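User: I've been trying to design a sequence by hand for this structure and keep getting stuck. Would you show me what you'd pick, starting by listing the structure so we're on the same page?

Assistant: Good idea, let's start from the same input. This is the structure you sent:
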């Protein structure tokens, strides 16, 4: 059945990756996971795609336009990703090549990452410890920002107002020459989140209004690039973000918790280009401060490293480097430091124009221990080419790992300093079909995760242990097609994922969760977007389906499937005098569906949003 759908729908999506690109006489280095990640699936969003979501968070983008399941506690509240049945802690998150997950929690809150702050966003699927490093068991999210050379001077002021007290303001300015480029972004995102919901915790499910879910975020991003010579480039970026939130209580509760998040992120790269390849020296700093009610937790991470790419003849390429990470956590119950040293190397062999192999490895040292070498191997093969079609086969096998978090090892009471890293093996194979007006792909995957860390009661104290083993298998389909009817140009994009993620080993011999689907891991998930354009006027309709999920590991309680429909109409080419004035109106949850992503955490019904920008 799946094969028939794949053959006859004519939809498709395939991310194009290349080695080193020439852009306005400035070379742009592709990340190693693109150049040496043969066989692994990568999704990328264009600049236009990101601009549509510029007033929203990364959680919203991924929930509506990716196969990931986003576990949301409410609008503007904690949101975490799940790749192929894994937990949020199995997703590596990078900004400008730096890992920015919290070292104490091992994950990030995607609702605190505004799309406006990013210039590029990509997803890498599957275990990729050799290419990405720590935490990339399920996959990785790659974000970046940067100023462009020889771009027109830009000043854009944007304002969005919407239902439930939404008021989002954004300003972007950019200036560049042949050798120097600046970019500055300022934003303030506010939502009262006073939406109505049916209180399922009360008899008769009376309608109530959310009265403790206000969220405010503000921040700025500064990017600077300097072409110091014809073959050398300095790039640096700084990102400050602050969020002040009333933590939305679950139904039946009246808690009044307050949380303030503050983050400082800085990256700097010095790139040297030669005829034989390039070398990059990288350093960065990430500091996070979380205040929950009056309890303060802080972490700091400092990184320094170097990597290079070398051409070994016409068919061989070698990539290698290393990174030192210094980590410190000052939390309410402990203070701890951690040092990690890692070396990585990759080899790519292209015997023919249509065939590429890669072999990768990473060696990690932490806690005065030497971890086993983490390998991966992959292949890309364009096995059929004609004037109209390209058929490609991608296949890979890889290992992933996750070092126990600071909380896992040092939390008092209960931390376990003897925990082993979580480890995974995964394999995937994908078939891609691409033509000038459409492309489509179907990917099958398998993943085993061992030493899965779980917190268990030990008397009156909870403590983490390496106990569980989890297996995840599934299929992912993605498609895209362009067509025209009269003067209207259409684009349809669709994706469907089936994921079977179960525990193979439980926490005890009588554990009823063994063989059961993991909680909050839908087996079926899909979305479809149809957009049309006529003389600059754009309209789109997006449908998202999430299948039934379970709430607990032994599956006695389930949450209903739900379908969400969203629509938007925009005119980006409106001009008033010399200024461009793009306008957009969108409606979220058109059908006013009552739903929960997490148990007893209500989500808003239908809402309306109007966005106006002035580009000078």
């Amino acid at each position: 059945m799946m094969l028939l759908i794949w053959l006859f729908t004519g939809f498709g999506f395939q991310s194009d990756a290349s080695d080193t690109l020439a852009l306005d006489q400035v070379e742009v280095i592709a990340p190693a996971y693109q150049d040496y990640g043969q066989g692994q699936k990568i999704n990328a969003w264009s600049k236009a795609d990101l601009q549509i979501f510029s007033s929203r968070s990364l959680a919203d983008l991924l929930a509506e336009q990716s196969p990931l399941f986003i576990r949301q506690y409410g609008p503007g509240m904690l949101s975490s990703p799940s790749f192929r049945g894994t937990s949020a802690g199995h997703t590596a998150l990078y900004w400008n090549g730096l890992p920015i997950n919290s070292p104490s929690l091992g994950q990030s809150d995607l609702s605190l990452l505004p799309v406006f702050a990013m210039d590029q966003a990509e997803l890498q699927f599957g275990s990729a410890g050799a290419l990405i490093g720590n935490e990339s068991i399920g996959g990785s999210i790659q974000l970046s920002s940067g100023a462009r050379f020889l771009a027109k001077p830009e000043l854009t002021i944007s304002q969005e107002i919407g239902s439930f007290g939404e008021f989002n303001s954004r300003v972007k300015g950019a200036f560049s020459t042949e050798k120097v480029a600046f970019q500055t972004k300022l934003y303030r995102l506010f939502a009262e989140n006073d939406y109505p919901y049916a209180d399922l915790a009360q008899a008769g499910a009376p309608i109530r209004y959310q009265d403790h879910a206000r969220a405010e975020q503000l921040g700025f991003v500064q990017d600077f690039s300097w072409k110091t010579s014809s073959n050398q480039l300095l790039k640096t970026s700084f990102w400050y973000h602050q969020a002040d939130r009333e933590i939305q209580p679950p139904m039946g509760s009246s808690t009044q918790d307050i949380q303030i998040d503050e983050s400082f992120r800085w990256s700097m790269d010095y790139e040297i280009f030669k005829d034989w390849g390039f070398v990059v020296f990288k350093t960065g700093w990430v500091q996070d401060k979380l205040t929950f009610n009056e309890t303060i937790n802080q972490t700091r991470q400092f990184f320094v490293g170097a990597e290079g790419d070398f051409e070994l003849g016409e068919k061989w390429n070698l990539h290698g480097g290393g990174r030192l990470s210094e980590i410190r956590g000052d939390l309410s119950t402990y203070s701890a430091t951690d040092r990690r040293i890692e070396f990585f190397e990759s080899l790519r062999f292209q015997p023919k124009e249509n065939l590429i192999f890669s072999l990768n490895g990473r060696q990690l040292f932490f806690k005065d221990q030497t971890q086993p070498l983490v390998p991966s191997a992959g292949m890309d093969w364009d096995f059929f080419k004609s004037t109209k079609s390209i058929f490609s086969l991608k296949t890979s096998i890889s290992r992933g790992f996750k070092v126990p978090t600071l909380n896992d090892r040092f939390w008092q009471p209960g931390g376990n300093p003897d925990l082993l890293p979580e480890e995974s093996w995964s394999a995937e194979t994908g078939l891609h079909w691409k033509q000038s007006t459409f492309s489509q792909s179907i990917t099958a995957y398998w993943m085993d995760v061992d030493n899965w860390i779980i917190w268990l009661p030990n008397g009156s104290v909870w403590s983490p242990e390496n106990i569980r083993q989890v297996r995840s298998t599934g299929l992912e389909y993605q498609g895209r097609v362009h067509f025209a009817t009269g003067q209207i140009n259409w684009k349809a994009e669709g994706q469907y994922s089936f994921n079977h993620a179960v525990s193979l080993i439980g926490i005890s011999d009588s554990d009823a969760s063994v063989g059961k689907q993991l909680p909050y891991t839908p087996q079926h998930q899909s979305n479809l977007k149809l957009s049309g354009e006529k003389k600059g006027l754009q309209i789109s309709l997006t449908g998202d389906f999430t299948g039934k999920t379970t709430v607990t590991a032994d599956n006695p309680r389930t949450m209903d499937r739900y379908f969400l429909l969203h629509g938007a109409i925009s005119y980006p080419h409106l001009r008033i005098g010399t200024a461009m004035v793009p306008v957009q109106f969108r409606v979220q949850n058109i059908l006013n569906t009552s739903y929960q992503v997490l148990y007893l955490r209500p989500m808003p019904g239908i809402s309306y949003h109007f966005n106006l920008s002035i580009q000078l």
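That's my pick for every position. To get oriented when you compare it with your attempt: The first strand starts at residue 20 and ends at 23. The chain has five helices and 38 strands.
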